[in-house]
Request: fold
Amino acid sequence: MQGGTFLFQLRYFCMNNRQNKFQMKRGVTLKDIAQKLNMSVSTVSKSLSNDPSISPPTKARVKKLADEWNYIPNEAARHFKLNRTYTIGLIIPNLMDQYYALAINGAEKVAGQHQYNVIISQSHEDPEREDKIVDLMLRNRVDGLLVAISKNREDMSVFKKTTYTGIPVIFFARPPKEDGFDAVISDNEHGAFKATEFLIKKGHKRIGHIMGPESMSVSYTRMEGYRRALDKYKLPYNSALVKSVDFTQEATFSAMRRFMKMVTPPTAFFAFKNYIALDAIEYLKRKHPAMLRKIDFAGFGNLPLLQYLDHKPVASIEESSYEMGEEAARLLLRTIHEEAPEEGRPVQHIQISCRLLAHK
Amino acid sequence: MQGGTFLFQLRYFCMNNRQNKFQMKRGVTLKDIAQKLNMSVSTVSKSLSNDPSISPPTKARVKKLADEWNYIPNEAARHFKLNRTYTIGLIIPNLMDQYYALAINGAEKVAGQHQYNVIISQSHEDPEREDKIVDLMLRNRVDGLLVAISKNREDMSVFKKTTYTGIPVIFFARPPKEDGFDAVISDNEHGAFKATEFLIKKGHKRIGHIMGPESMSVSYTRMEGYRRALDKYKLPYNSALVKSVDFTQEATFSAMRRFMKMVTPPTAFFAFKNYIALDAIEYLKRKHPAMLRKIDFAGFGNLPLLQYLDHKPVASIEESSYEMGEEAARLLLRTIHEEAPEEGRPVQHIQISCRLLAHK
DNA sequence: TTGTACGCGTTATCAA
DNA sequence: TTGATAACGCGTACAA
Reply:
């Protein structure tokens, strides 16, 4: 059924010539097959789904023609009837961040295992854009939403609305500040603790923290871990050693400038994430090359690109974002398949533990 | 219309209590609104689409209730009727490659501008998996396909079938070996020429080429550019200086091992792409640290991560993958909206020119 | 063993 | 100005 079939296909399409491109036939339907074979649509439908009530010869005829005509079942129609699209929407800040790319892989895997499609969209850290994406996805009737919210998100009403409408939303990586939402997150506090502890054990007494944006709750959680580590090892906490950045290179440069201007700058930094640490290292390269080898960094995110770097963090907190994507998707599917989502259900939280990874 | 509305929503959902979770109502419909207001569905539909034949008071009543009940139009149903899903499928080898991540951004932008959704899937360089993805996407009736084929793809029949069925396919970045397919690609030969020329002008006389997989046509195109540059500058072409790899680190290491074993190893390399150059540099770091500063690399792909590297290629060929994604999506949408796709149409090719980018 | 009828949410057409 | 009806592709309960 190679070339010949294709030509036949072409003829077939030419036959039902509809002028309007928007009404153009886009694929063979059960009806087409039924007409050709002089039988009813339901017989064709049953034949193709191997219904035992259909006689083998009939089945054979149907399957033969379906094959020749290259029939492809229309899942959209099937789902339409079921009132579900078997599609989940995935909203992330940025595809270029390998962390999210990995999480997507995990989510896609789980979704695929359950015959779900995934549609991905990026907020580019813009809450307004995020709102539009949610709206678009709801219009397209995704069965659920997987969201790593943009860093400046304040108003959670869109997501509340979504949940109340019966479309479950699972947050991952970046939980909302507000309580009451299902979420899958890393064990951020413990990870931060371990990273800081690693630096302390390496002998550092004065450790700075390049904190994440103040608009994100994770920033505080990680800061708390940093603080707990200092406490445990009887090091003083000094708020001057904590500076918040917004992920832009400029912000990190500016923070580093202020750090390095101090009378006694920190000898090590725990960074909210390693993309930030890389910018901080870049700053040292440009402005304080002599310090490069004296200052240690540790941060979240064991990025594949780290392997190529000469100057890199001494330790990373491996966040298992692939696993997080998997877990988030699993939780979402579970929620989707739950009975009676109207009933009150406890908020679900899943924590993925982090691993400390010393480099070199 | 905050909290109160939501509660109402809840009650609303509880009222039509259907046991079966698969038949559960998932959102307010036109019918619901029509029933409540004692009018026909068509009136409601027209009111919401601002049909001039509906009286302003009626429109107002409808819109008010639609708002209160938080009506969200069901695009799936709408598309179902129109026989199109306003969704395009995007198949790439790997999301972790920033090159594709950027291309996706470009494609998404253009698709979004035309109210199209994008569903993304990764082949992970596995043709079989790619086949399954195509099948799945066709079952879901995407309106068109954007594909960067996996490196080992030999049999193009799936895509032929797709095209003949009336679903346009645009290839990008990696065109098929076979002719006859629409594609958007970089000006690979010229890019390769410029990269090699750059190395020559830097004084190198013995330039190796770490070639891409032999299964990919682009590999030959880039090799041709390399060869043309040698020719132009009267340097001898030596097939021993060309070694093909398959993107794995092991393959690149092995190629470099053979290169460095030569009596006079190359003093510079033109790499099929910079991810390969990075592995080659990594090899030198481990095995020939002394040579690190003496050997130059140039390759395709100006990756954002390059900025953080100490040892990096001296030049990159900027492929404008964002632009390529845009162009590919544009071409696809144009093809989708074409009248009479049955008619013979010349194969469409778009070339994106590359820019040489010297680093540091 | 096969066919008929219906419904999913929406829009377009035609009738009232 | 509004309403009734058909249609999109499919599955299924029920009738023949």
Observations:
- Chain A touches chain B through 69 residues (CB under 8 Å).
- Chain A is about 45% helix and 15% strand.
- Residues 23, 29-31, 41-42, 45-46, 49, 73-74, 76-78, 80-82 of chain A lie near DNA strand D (CB under 10 Å from a C1').
